[in-house]
Amino acid sequence: MENYERLEKLGEGAAGVVYKARDRRTGAIVAMKRLRPAGRNDGQLSEDLGREVGCLMACRGHPSLVEIRAAGRDASNAFLVMEYVGPSLAQVMRERAGLGRGPFTEADARRLMRQLLDGAAAMHGFAVMHRDLKPDNVLVDAHGNLKICDFGLSRFAAPTTGAPYTASMVTRWYRAPELLLGSREYDVGVDTWALGCIMAELLAGAPLFPGRTEMDQLNLVFDTVGTGDMTNWPSFVRLPRAGSPLCQRKRPPSRLREMFPALSAAGFDVLSGLLACRPDRRLTAADALRRPWFTGAESPDQARR
Ligand SMILES: Nc1ncnc2c1ncn2[C@@H]1O[C@H](COP(=O)(O)OP(=O)(O)OP(=O)(O)O)[C@@H](O)[C@H]1O
User: Fold this and answer.
1) Cα–Cα nearest to 36, from 27, 49, 20
2) The Protein kinase domain covers which part of the protein (predicted)?
3) Cα-to-chain-centroid distance, residue 57
4) Whose CA is nearest to atom 13 of ligand 1?
5) Which of 125, 289, 301, 302 is in the most buried spot, having the most CB atoms within 10 Å?
6) Which residue lies with its CA nearest to atom 27 of ligand 1?
7) In angstroms, what is the span from residue 281 Cα to ligand 1's centroid?
8) Nearest ligand 1 atom, CA 18
9) Is ligand 1 within 6 A of the CB of residue 139?
10) Which residues contact 263 (CB under 8 A, 6 or more apart)?
């Protein structure tokens, strides 16, 4: 990693610290992530790096997925070098709110969701589950285009390395109901649920389900979209927390439409499809892109700038 000159810190998360850096050989600006060993032994650190690098390598070449440039280790740290993109979508949304600019228009939300879904469809096509999609893990480039980053929790969903997976994945506010109910046999639907939460946040300017605890999270989800759909799912009874009183409580039907009265019918079709409680009824990223919201008359907002 001696080829890179470290510049300012860009961000810090549970897994590591990300710096802006300059490639001494070419002068190019890159982002360099140093994985923090915190309680991990050498073997685990190499395994974490290997998994993140493997998923990033599989996804290389898609404009909506951050590109890996190099990876390596020294005696105590592991490093990942990526293209430098720009601030996170979470930062951009906070800045917009600070400037009183409010949420994104439906046209802007559609342009941004098209990019995220396109990236997710490609990633899922390579059998990669991201498992931590949220506005902090989406970067915004200088032209306002989005790139999914932080593959630190991602893994391959290939048949050979199939379920059971770890249930405690995805940051709570973006966690799909099957994960909240303890499922260890989930699929890429956990990513599309998170994308539904992001779409709602773009349109509303605030997180859709800001739960304080896991159970509060489940309550918020069920209070918003109802439980009928989930409890009718044939696999529901096999979920570890299917017996939770939260699942038995009577709830009114979905009030998602009331929360987004100004959203077009085509936009709501995508939002409600991504936020289907039952994983088998949830839109896949590829299916979402085939819905009329995206396939309607080509408009300038749909083009990648
Ligand atoms: N390629 C990049 N270009 C520009 N900034 C980046 C890049 N990658 C990461 N960052 C910045 O660093 C922050 C942390 O990156 P990342 O999410 O990969 O780290 P992490 O330690 O896994 O974080 P967390 O624990 O929050 O998931 C991002 O939110 C972003 O602000």
Assistant:
1) 49
2) 4-294
3) 18
4) 11
5) 289
6) 13
7) 32
8) 12
9) yes
10) 106, 203, 271
Residue with tokens 């930062």, as numbered in its chain: 91
Residue type, 231: T
Is the CB of 150 inside a 6 Å radius of any atom of ligand 1?
yes
Q: So what's the pLDDT on residue 13?
A: 78
Predicted complex ipTM: 0.93
Of 24, 19, 23, 1, nearest in space to 9 by CA: 19
pLDDT by position in tens, the chain (length 305):
789 999 999 988 777 899 999 999 999 999 999 987 666 677 777 788 888 999 999 999 999 999 999 998 887 788 999 999 999 999 999 999 999 898 999 999 999 999 999 999 999 999 999 999 999 999 999 999 999 999 988 988 866 555 677 766 668 999 999 999 998 888 999 999 999 999 999 999 999 999 999 999 999 999 999 887 777 888 888 888 888 888 888 888 899 999 999 999 999 999 999 999 999 999 999 999 999 999 985 444 544 44
Count of Cβ atoms closer than 10 Å to residue 44 Cβ: 11
Ligand 1 pocket, residue 147 CB under 6 Å: no
Nearest CA to ligand 1 atom 24: 13
**Cβ of residue 14 lying under 6 Å from some atom of ligand 1:** yes
Closest C-alpha among 69, 64, 215, 26 to residue 145: 64
Q: Whose CA is nearest to atom 14 of ligand 1?
A: 11
CB 50 within 8 A of CB 80: no
Give the Cα separation of 260 and 279 in Å (integer).
Answer: 22
